[in-house]
Amino acid sequence: MKHYPVMLPEVLSSLSMADGETCVDGTFGNGGYSEAILNSAACSVIGLDRDPNVQPRADELATAYGDSFRLINTPFSKMDKVGIDRVDGVVLDIGVSSMQLDQAERGFSFMREGPLDMRMEQGGGPTARDAVMALSVSELTRIFQVYGEEKRARHVANCIVSAREDSDIVTTADLAGIVERALGRRGKTHPATRVFQALRIFVNDELGELYLGLCAAERILAPGGRLVVVTFHSLEDRIVKSFFRRRAGEVAGGSRYAPEVENNGPAASFTLPKRSVTKPSKTEVEENARSRSAKLRVAVRTEADVFEADDRLLPNVISLSELEARL
Questions:
Q1: Residues 6+ apart with CB under 8 A from 156
Q2: Domains in the chain: how many in total?
Q3: Are residues 129 and 165 in the same domain?
Q4: Which tens digits make up the pLDDT trace of 240-254?
């Protein structure tokens, strides 16, 4: 399957890279953003990815662009801990890449039978199979409700726990079959879509990684540096939106019941050139179905100090460490 970098024109316009500047592509994947950024100006790109399978593609770009490109095999949440100096742009394309979905052995997709894994790093830590085999009904329900926004989450969780008493849930087909029998087939969307999404987000701590990545970008961006984030899930966009507005010094309130409160907090570390979200064009959605749910937000770094971390932006769901302790 051909890889389409989502909202590429909008990403390039938001980054607006100039000659001599440096950008971090925090979600390198198949290198679509990195290559386009390198072609947009005489700039440098540092790619980050926690998936070691992207190395061959990174080698191609290193050969083509020389010292202007390099890859660091690390989660983007640690971009401030791997020796990166101040940069002029950071771009994050959140979620699983089409390249990972296409690899059956990674276990991300119910469309391709493979081991029920879903780990982006593949180097240890709980798998999706561990989660469905070890977590309780209430814990699975919470994961499916919060991360998948599945309306019948408890029913699905009950069916999974019941099924695992009879036999191990080992493959993507095993789990997809259980969910399909639980929910039935309605419409074009496979009934397992939300459950697989929820497990993937949980296994990779994607929301925690996103928040830490935003904080890390805040630390390495130079004044005037642009932070561009593309999300595909309402929870992801909510975290980015809240992070940007807090860092820009905006406060809640202003309704007829609650007058706006004066902001006496720290100086804004970002400004928002556009408060509203940018969505893909109709033409792009028609050509690339993956872009349908995409949302882009951008913020520009000021000279102010970084904010203190505030994990209240994250939903309260069982942690990976709690699951790992049971295995």
A1: 140, 141, 144, 150, 179, 182, 183, 195
A2: 2
A3: yes
A4: 999 999 999 985 433
Half-sphere exposure of 165 (CA within 13 A, CB side): 7
| Cα gap 122→28, rounded to integer Å | 17
- The whole domain housing 256 covers 8-97+206-313
Residue with tokens 């949302």: 295
Sequence-distant (6+) residues with CB within 8 A of 282 are none
Residue 81 scores a pLDDT above 70: yes
Residue 2 placed within a domain: no
Clarify whether residues 188 and 254 are in a common domain. Answer: no
**Number of helices (H) and strands (E), helices first, in the chain?**
13, 7
Query: pLDDT tens for residues 153-197?
Result: 999 999 999 999 999 999 999 999 999 999 988 777 788 889 999
Q: Strands of 44-48's sheet, edge to edge?
A: 69-72, 44-48, 22-25, 87-93, 221-231, 295-301, 270-271
CA separation for the pair 211, 216 (Å, rounded): 9
- Are 182 and 268 in a shared domain? no
DSSP 24: E
Q: Which helix (H) or strand (E) holds 233?
A: none
* Co-location of 187 and 236 in the same domain: no
